[in-house]
Amino acid sequence: QQSRAHSVAVLGAPFSRGQKRGGVEHGPKVIRDAGLIERLSGLDYSVHDFGDLNFHYLEKDEPYMDVKFPRTVGAANKMMCGAVSRAVGAGHTLVMLGGDHSLAIGSVAGHAQQCPDLCLIWVDAHADINTPMSSPSGNLHGQPVAFMLKELQEKMPAIPGFSWMKPFLSSRDLVYIGLRDVDPGEHHILKDLGIQYFTMRDIDRLGIQRVMEVTLDHLLSRKQRPIHLSFDVDAFDPSLAPATGTPVNGGLTYREGIYITEEIHNTGLLSVMDLVEVNPMLGASPEAVEATASLAVDVIASCLGQTREGARVSIDEIPSVKD
Ligand SMILES: N[C@@H](CSCCS(N)(=O)=O)C(=O)O
Ligand SMILES: [Mn+2]
Ligand SMILES: [Mn+2]
Ligand SMILES: [Mn+2]
Description:
Strand order of the largest sheet: 2-1-3-8-7-4-5-6
Radius of gyration: 19 Å
Shape: globular
Helix content: 25-40%
Structural class: alpha/beta
Order of helices and strands: EHHEHEHEHEHEHHEHEH
Bound molecules: S-[2-(aminosulfonyl)ethyl]-D-cysteine, manganese (II) ion
Oligomer: single chain
Number of helices: 10
Distance between the termini: 25 Å
Strand content: 15-25%
Largest sheet: 8 strands, parallel
């Protein structure tokens, strides 16, 4: 048996109140049903399935400054923060299964409690960096990054449910890949803060190999540090990942997405990853749901060392060809 060099923990986060479309709370189940644990068990990790967090949807949770379900989302992220901090503190590489992208607030905050020098790679069609004032929808799954950034602190009102956290991330420690649907307020923030981002146009111009080279150089050349990958399945083209809440045409190809995750694996620095926004109720057919969930499993497995060239095994592990 290969040495189990690392330990990976899987944590389900069945949560949907960062947006309005029901079903994304079933994301963890369909990703597990697509064989996630089995696939990870075949890699060089010991796999611990922590099951699903049990979130409470508060009955009374009136909008605040048009922000929807602030107290429910805030409480969910406080729970998420504690769970992620404990898992990383126990030495696990962590895979968080969403659930909507508002959960990244707690996931990255919990990771930062253990690894304050972490860097964040956000793979998404969207920037998810609206403030409560700039958000066109009031949905908190479009705002998580704004809650993390120290440079936005004076622009962020005190939202009920979020008094437990303080911004912890510097904008230089964040890179976006896959953007193609950015709101005006978000674009202003990206430019104002000088955040490094690669849109789908940049990927068309530079190619994914160069995008990853620049991304990893930007984040790691000064200092090697833990990587948090927050991967929204809607980064992929909707033809590949149809079962998601905010699909946008012209997304990542399968090969681009897998190249991103292979390069992140090869740094040896991946510490926490989120795989969010799989919504099985939004697939037009069972096949569409299965395709989206199976893609999520491929992305996670590739982050954790599954390769397209095959795994290195000792010769005596290869079943001899029976004559
Ligand atoms: N920018 C829009 C859409 S945000 C889409 C959120 S996600 N997590 O990327 O699906 C908004 O803020 O409502
Ligand atoms: Mn998105
Ligand atoms: Mn997102
Ligand atoms: Mn989405």
